[in-house]
Hints:
The complex is a heterodimer.
Chain A: E1 9-18, E2 21-22, H1 24-33, E3 39-40, E4 51-53, H2 73-82, H3 87-98, E5 103-108, H4 114-122, H5 133-142, H6 147-156, E6 162-165, H7 171-185, E7 190-197, H8 201-209, E8 230-231, E9 233-241, H9 242-245, E10 251-260, H10 273-286, E11 295-297, H11 304-318, E12 323-325, H12 328-331, H13 338-352, E13 354-355, E14 377-378, E15 383-390, E16 394-402
Parallel strand pairs in A: 4-8, 5-6, 5-7, 11-12, 11-15
Antiparallel strand pairs in A: 1-2, 1-9, 1-10, 3-4, 7-9, 10-16, 13-14, 15-16
Helix pairs in contact in A: 2-6, 7-13, 10-11
Chain B: E1 2-12, E2 15-16, H1 18-25, H2 46-51, H3 54-70, E3 78-82, H4 88-99, H5 107-111, H6 117-126, E4 132-136, H7 141-156, E5 160-166, E6 183-190, E7 198-206, H8 218-226, H9 233-241, E8 245-251, E9 255-263
Parallel strand pairs in B: 3-4, 3-5
Antiparallel strand pairs in B: 1-2, 1-6, 1-7, 5-6, 7-9, 8-9
Amino acid sequence: MASRPMTPLTLSAYTLVTANGRGIGAVSQALRERRSGLTPCDFEDALLKTYIGRVVGLEDFSLGEQLAPFDCRNNRLAWLGLQQDGFMVAVAEAIQRYGADRIAVVMGTSTSGILETEHAYRNRDPLTGALPPRYTSHYRYTHNMYSLGHFVRAYLGLKGPAMVISTACSSSAKVFATAARFLQTGLCDAAIVGGVDSLCHTTLHGFSALQLLSASPCRPCDEDRDGLSLGEAAGYALLESSERVGRKGAVALLGYGESTDGYHMSHPHPEGAGAIRAIRQSLDRAGLQPSDIDYINLHGTATRANDAVEDKAVYSIFGEGPACSSTKGWTGHALGAAGITEALIAALCLKQGLIPGTIHCERVDPALRSRILRENENRPIRRVVSNIFGFGGNNCSLVLGVL
Amino acid sequence: MRVGILGVGLLAAGLEGWPAGRDVLAGARPFDPSMVPDPAASLLPANERRRSSDCVRWAVQVAQEAIAQSGLDPHEVATVFASSGGEMDVLDKLCRALAAAERVVSPTLFHQSVHNTAAGYWGIATRCQQSSTALSCYDDSGAAGLLEAVTYAVIEQRPVLFVAYDLPAPAPLHGARPIASAFAAALVLAPSMEQTLAIADVTVKPAAGREVSRALGQEFERLRLDNPAARVLPVLQALATRRRATIDLNLLDDQRLTVEVEPCGR
């Protein structure tokens, strides 16, 4: 069934922290200079032969007395993200315009502050097996899935509807869809969407157990690609109805598509059925044809299966049309924060007339048929599709464009 | 926002399935919480059922009950799964493994640790390719999930299956998140008002000075407070007693999700 067109949503403000640095400027510079943020794994005592996209400095500060219960790696990263690109000022202005109870918070994460629980399990009482009291009294503010939403809403002083979506890698792409529905029903006048995921042993050792971690920096779409690199990131956008605020030249969400594979927990549907469904829906909602798209930011994790299946799906819709690339070689795969990371990379590409070529891809796998870009291109673009596909076969595609 | 309710699923100690649970909630049959269900979740393929966690089986059981009652093809129905902590049992096993010297993590356990595990298994069981969202809002996960499901049905003009579930965490994690008993419930919601059990009008209002609705009866009120998913019990009680009711669910302390339930002919 074709999806109904949606009212575009202006990204009135946005900000991003990744392994490439703090703020949109740092990410943009790294993309232009083709400087990857991936480094050999030095996360705590994880002795894994892999590369990671670590945000430098998270170990060296805490959230301070007032926010103490929230203090964990994930919320430190969440806090750091909120300090960049004048985002706090933009939110304060939105509160002035609409009132704190008219602004929703929809966040995405896959593991929240699970690192705190991992640490607590290592520090169990040797006699009783109990977890440290400081941990148990703070679980609500650190590891629980809603912790991120709780922190962002409380720190920004917002009083509208809030929730945390956790659908593995698609989490912080789906937040755009939920926010779009909230705005359309009149539940709120603006929404803060975003996602934060931080490095932890669960994902590092989990993906290692699945034999999906590359020993080198990940090489999306390369014929010799051999797995992914994990990263961490925090990103946020302030969304308002474009009909209401306009802002010619601004970046807007034009469409979204959500689907599932109904196939397997950790393997994509072999024909990319769910991915095709999500992409088509996103185009339908934007009222666009495949030929209207200038660039596709692929999910492009650099695992053999994911890249091949995504290529099948993309080629079946777009043929050899738009330039396609993956930016995971810069940021690593930020899992629950991948959706917002790549949506905001798409936004900066639209604003700056940049198409990043796939870093670390030396020779495009000849089996892939889409037009995979290796080198950067500098030219104006107007419409971008961003794909995110995750565990549980949960898919989301976003269309962003310039108003 | 107005939606039709087409099907209900219920599972808790002493409330096994909607037909029996409905009678208990309506006071027509005694409540015996010593009867703890062991859901078959028969829709899961044998292989998946063998590997699946208790959480998955509880969530799938109420989902399949509600879908069967709705008469809809699950293939056509989007899903919203709401849970405060999701797979707490799996997370306990993972954290135990990660605390050991060798840190050997089971790949199966890892892919079952995500918050959308139950949603994923439901999708695999039904081959459904519609949208699926898994979310959390701590104690208010049920209310937040209902809000997400209702806005989905209204804006996308599609039926949606809403499932709320939480199971007690094992020790020692139980100390961090004490949930006393298991609870799962499901509602099939649709934008159309035809062939419905009831109509629900859902609004969000500022909380100032307004109490939340309690469950009728002390034992059900205790159950409501024992488990975040059970916060939706007053809605189920209104459906069970087939009475018109206005129910206020807590949403983040400063808001209320108000659900006006009106029974229909079916």
